[in-house]
Amino acid sequence: MSKVLEYSPTKTIEQQLREERFRDEVLDHNITVSMGPQHPSTHGVLRLEIELDGETVVKTIPDIGYLHTGMEKIMEYKKYQQNIVITDRMDYLNPMGNNLGYIMCVEKLLGITDEIPERAKVIRVMLTELQRIASHMVWLGTHALDIGAMSVFFYCFREREKILNIYEAICGGRMTVSFFRVGGLPYDIPEFVPKMVRDFCDGFPSAVDEYETLLAGNKIFQSRTRGVGVISAEDAIQWALTGPSLRGSGIDFDVRRYDPYCGYETYDFDVPTELDGDVWARFRVRMRELRESLKIVRQAVDRLKPGSVKVDSPKIALPEREIMKSQMDALIHHFLLAGLGFEVPPGEAYHAIEGSKGELGFYIVSDGSERPYRVHVRGPSFVNLQALPSMAQGYLIADVVAIIGSLDIVLGEIDR
Amino acid sequence: MSDKKESEIYAPSSSDSRLKATDASAYIEGRFSDAVEEVKQQHGEVSVYVKREKLLEVCTFLRDDPKLRFNMLSDLTGFDRGVDESPRFEVIYQLLSLQNRCRLRLKVRLDEEDCRVSTVSNIWKTANWHERETYDLLGIEFDGHPDLRKILTPEDLEGHPLRKDFPLRGY
After folding, report:
1. Model-level pTM?
2. What share of chain A is helix, strand, coil (3-state, %, to 5)?
3. In this complex, which of A70, A240, A374 lies closest to B72 when CB atoms are compared?
4. Do B126 and A77 touch (CB under 8 A)?
5. What is the ipTM metric for this complex?
6. Which of A25, A100, B19, B32 could serve as a FRET partner for A332 with CA atoms 20 to 30 Å apart?
7. Contacts of A67 in chain B (CB under 8 A)
């Protein structure tokens, strides 16, 4: 554009533009804005190409792949037990869930799903539900931060810290835990952990009340979220949304209910749904889920009975350290398992669990060797993000930020 | 705003009237005897191999039939069975019926020389990105796809990383 507007305090810019015949070029054309990949509200390296008419979104084109590290390819070259470490790095806010989905799929291929000891199952449920709470804490903090409520972030990280401390006490890792193993757990949790979990459970309800007071009753928060980013139940199914994003549209689909694993059918919990399908509905669903997850954690702690935490199969689970040092055959098993891994019978399996963001599915093809032939991850963030253009259309550009927050995406899982 | 009626459609039916994956596969085998190549069952999961030409017909039926209603496509992916294998590729569709609470896996076999299959993104919108990913990583083309571009790998990367002849390192 060659012309430069003269400064004139009496006219608005629009009047001036119309007079100067910039009209065709500027006023009646949509403009395209590139948001990200370094934008803080895109929760990672997501780039959105947004076509705008004034402030209204006409079209959104997500551009992903900035974080692609070829995890599915790498997993084909690693042994089954080595891949657990890779799953941590996908959805780094939900590592326990990723571990669980992967190892349960391998257990399905091995045919040992029913042989997992009760104690291992209860600990798995307890830790994944704590992880769901921790993941929702990050979601709540960043979602509120994006909309402009800064203080919530710090309170959320306070509670999350307590959960990460529990993880640290159990396995030494805080975010990349790699704690679950095919066939159970690597070792039992320390004696003091149930007390830590109970302490957390006692303090947490009042913390949720605090978040509700900070946000739910806030007029600004409500006007930023109510009626924004609406998606109907029909569309949500067409886009295969899962998790809280789907339940916000009124469909009570939860893998823990529909297709129970790990003994979830024996726990007493509700699947919260909301009918409106907007950002506010998804917020309500997740807030209620926090309390439901806490209910499950409480039940799991009460169920902790002494017992073994791994299958009685030396070909799959490593022997106890002390036994390995004193018995010859245990040493041989340890050596073979650590050095060569275990072979998985040929076949294929798809196992889905309810991750913190939705249905997290692992599809593994085995050719009979100790390395998977093909691993595919159905990441809930990948699928949920796809619905963003249809959710954002017709809303303001500031609402896009709120909608991304309500989808709760993690780019590590989208790009894999 | 979703009204009550909509959510009732997707509510699960009572446990006795629910269809199992084995019933569903038998049902479509009877209906499309010329389209179903093989039915496999493993680990409680049913895989149905479908002829490539008949895929769209079978998928539309699976979604719309009031008894089956596989209204959600959970996942779509593919894999390379090996450089010397024939047919070399398989495309996998993981279907989910919210009404029957059951999953079904559809599979299509593709030859290396002609690795293309019709898109199902008109049936389930969610297939759009899954098909782009499969195209990007495995080089399987989806006919009729509205926007078949690379999605994960950089623009200047040649080849398809999940093919078995693509090197892990040294590229």
Report:
1. 0.88
2. 50, 10, 40
3. A240
4. no
5. 0.88
6. A100
7. none
> How large is the average pLDDT for residues A280-301?
92
Does domain A71-414 correspond to CATH entry 1.10.645.10? yes
Please check the confidence at residue A23 and state whether its pLDDT lies above 60. Answer: no
pLDDT digits (tens, 9 = 90+) for A216-259: 888 888 888 888 888 988 889 989 899 898 998 888 888 888 88
**Distance to chain B for A91, nearest Cα, Å:** 16
Sorted by sequence, the CB contacts under 8 Å of residue B121 that are 6+ apart come out as B127, B128, B131, B142, B145, B146
Burial class (CB in 10 A: 0-12, 13-18, 19+), A55: exposed
B14 CB-contact burial (10 Å; exposed 0-12 / middle 13-18 / buried 19+): exposed
Verify whether the Cβ–Cβ distance A376 to B75 is below 8 Å: yes
- Which of B89, B96, B147 should one mutate to test binding to chain A, selecting the residue with the greatest count of A CBs within 10 A? B96
Indicate the residue of B4, B77, B151 with minimum beta-carbon distance to A363: B77
Tell me the per-residue pLDDT of A48-90, one tens digit each, with 9 for 90 and over.
888 888 888 888 999 888 888 889 999 999 999 899 999 988 8
Domain boundaries, chain A: 71-414
Query: Do you know the residue count of chain A?
Result: 416
User: What does the pLDDT average to over A12-19?
Assistant: 69
Q: Which helix (H) or strand (E) holds A291?
A: helix A279-303
Q: Is A88 helix (H, G, I), strand (E, B) or coil?
A: helix
Cα–Cα distance, A58 to B49 (Å, whole number): 41
